[in-house]
Design brief:
There is one protein chain. The chain is mainly alpha-helical. The protein has one domain (9-63). Helices cover 45% and strands 9% of the residues. The protein contains three helices and two strands, in the order H-E-H-E-H. It has a two-stranded parallel sheet with strand order 1-2. Strand 1, helix 2 (34-41) and strand 2 form a beta-alpha-beta unit. The longest helix is centred in the C-terminal third of the chain and has 13 residues, at 51-63. It is flat and about 35 Å long. The two termini are 20 Å apart.
């Protein structure tokens, strides 16, 4: 999702530490892409998707083992 600065970075680190999977919204579909960009640049994103593909990405993950 979109956001500004690094406010989501620590949360993303916690998600990864707990074994979670992170989908980041791509810069082209973000109004404000600071937070997704920081998470992606930190190497925490498992996927970078356009906003219109995030829901289908979540559905795909729900149907399969990550």
């Amino acid at each position: 999702m979109t956001g500004m600065g690094t406010d989501g970075l620590e949360g993303a680190r916690m998600v990864k530490a707990a074994g979670g999977y992170i989908i980041v919204q791509d810069a082209q579909s973000c109004v404000v892409c600071g937070m997704p960009k920081v998470v992606s640049e930190a190497g925490l994103a498992d996927e970078v998707l356009s906003l219109n593909l995030i829901a289908s990405g979540i559905k795909r993950l729900a149907r399969s083992a990550v």
